[in-house]
Design goal:
The chain has 11 helices and 25 strands. The chain is of the alpha/beta class. It holds the Pfam family Pyr_redox_2.
């Protein structure tokens, strides 16, 4: 019986295993050094905030794996011998496979800061990070202040988590406005104000120089590079992005760049070895997407696609139109298609931006100013339907059509009625002025 070994029990690896089982009777082993059972990584923050217990983050009961004949092995792979199709574990044992899938995800970036490995320095990615947070920041008596370094989506989640326990937070963001490499100016500035309204000490254009230790090797303070200012703190959250978690492959014959290099079929340079999820790097980026996508739903799609290939129906990975969603404190964010920031905007890209007076709701619609084709939309504080925008992007609708039919895309019509007329009026006014 063909044996499929999957290294990594995140959304990619587990989706792959489930779909292989639906399609076949192959032997499946999922290997993980992190946790015994799969859990939802995106839900970790809610455990710390008291909304759920850790076991609630596990989508499947513990008996599910036996029932579906999916073997789980806890262990750390430190060497892959692709010639003999053998995995060697740090614990001293080994395992042979017929096909191997690398789905080891990401790890938080570290940029060689002095003190980056001290006690009290953590990311917010693994279950171990959650445990460290409970140790070093259980309350505002033990942790009098936390400093977060890096202004992405994980940074804002960590700020919200600490805020929920009334722990003061200083937030160091390298850019001169929050996430402005991704968001257009109006949205980025609205999020700056929203962060400050939650009493978070947001420091823009600020880089970390070093983390200082007390006599016990624990975090005592940080130094801001630009000003030399010292800020006392007990916890430092490193949230300056993530990197593929592939250091264990350095002596293997598997080709790596920043991630494990794969083609459109998620195949590596070695026969019968594949990579999916955050750790996979496309040789050629797909459309406007990045070669590495550390996104939950693309990991799931890669798992579903590769299961077909492994079970005899060779399938190309086609992720479709870009979309994503997140939360900035209590503002929900959704994006469909492409809306670029001023920094990376294309010459032909124009934006229509509308913001509500309460400063917590806005939309930005991107379109081609030469052809009027709708390119994408960002929404903040207003929920929209994915299927509707997906359809309009495929149909290459023009901006006028989209603006006049926004109500059809709305997720919550009663809630939305108050803004629909305002948005259309603002859009029509802009056209008149233009």
């Amino acid at each position: 019986m063909e044996h499929i070994a999957i290294i990594g029990n995140g959304i990619s690896g587990v989706t792959l295993a489930r779909h292989i089982r639906k399609l076949s009777d192959k032997k499946i082993t999922i290997i993980s050094a992190e946790t015994e059972y799969f859990f939802s990584r995106t839900a970790l923050m809610y455990v710390y905030m008291g909304h759920m217990k850790f076991e609630h983050t596990q989508p499947y009961e513990n008996w599910f794996w036996d029932k579906n004949r999916i073997n789980l092995k806890k262990g750390y792979v430190n060497e892959i011998d692709t010639d003999n199709k053998t995995l060697h574990f740090a614990e001293g044992d080994s395992l042979t496979y017929d096909k191997l899938v690398i789905a080891t995800g990401s790890k938080p970036n570290k940029f060689g800061w002095p003190g980056q490995d001290l006690k009290g320095v953590l990311g917010m990615y693994h279950k171990q990070d959650l445990e460290n947070l409970e140790t070093y920041a259980p309350n505002n008596k033990v942790c009098k202040r936390a400093v977060i370094v890096g202004g992405g989506l994980i940074g804002i989640e960590l700020a919200e988590m600490l805020n929920s326990r009334s722990i003061p937070v200083t937030f160091l963001v390298r850019e001169d406005s929050f996430w402005n490499g991704v968001l257009p100016k109006g949205e980025s500035e609205m999020i700056n104000r929203h962060i400050k309204n939650h009493h978070i000490d947001l420091r823009l254009s600020s880089n970390l120089r070093e983390i200082k230790a007390d006599e016990n090797g624990q975090v005592k303070s940080i130094i801001i590079d630009e000003t030399g200012e010292e800020i006392e703190c007990n916890v430092v959250g490193l949230t300056a992005g993530v990197t593929p978690n592939i250091s264990f492959l350095k002596d293997s014959k598997i080709e790596v760049g920043r991630g494990v290099k794969v083609n459109r079929f998620l195949e590596t340079n070695i026969e019968d070895v594949y990579a999916i999820g955050d750790c996979a790097e496309q040789h050629e980026a797909i459309g406007n997407r990045r070669p590495i996508e550390a996104v939950w739903y693309t990991g799931r799609m890669m798992g579903e696609t590769l299961a077909q290939t492994i079970c005899g129906n060779k399938l190309e990975y086609k992720p479709g139109h870009w979309f994503n969603s997140a939360k900035f404190m209590d503002i929900e964010y959704q994006t469909y298609g492409w809306v670029f920031s001023e920094r990376s905007k294309k010459d032909f890209e124009a934006h229509f931006h509308w913001k509500h007076d309460d400063d917590t709701k806005c939309i930005t619609v991107a379109y081609n100013k030469n052809t009027n084709e709708f390119l994408g939309i960002n929404t903040f504080g207003i929920r929209m339907r994915h299927e509707t925008f997906d359809k309009w992007l495929t149909e290459k609708r023009d901006i006028d059509y989209v603006m006049n039919h926004l109500a059809e895309a709305n997720f919550d019509p009663e809630f939305y009625k108050r803004f629909e007329k305002d948005i259309l009026k603002a859009y029509n006014n802009q056209l008149t002025i233009a």
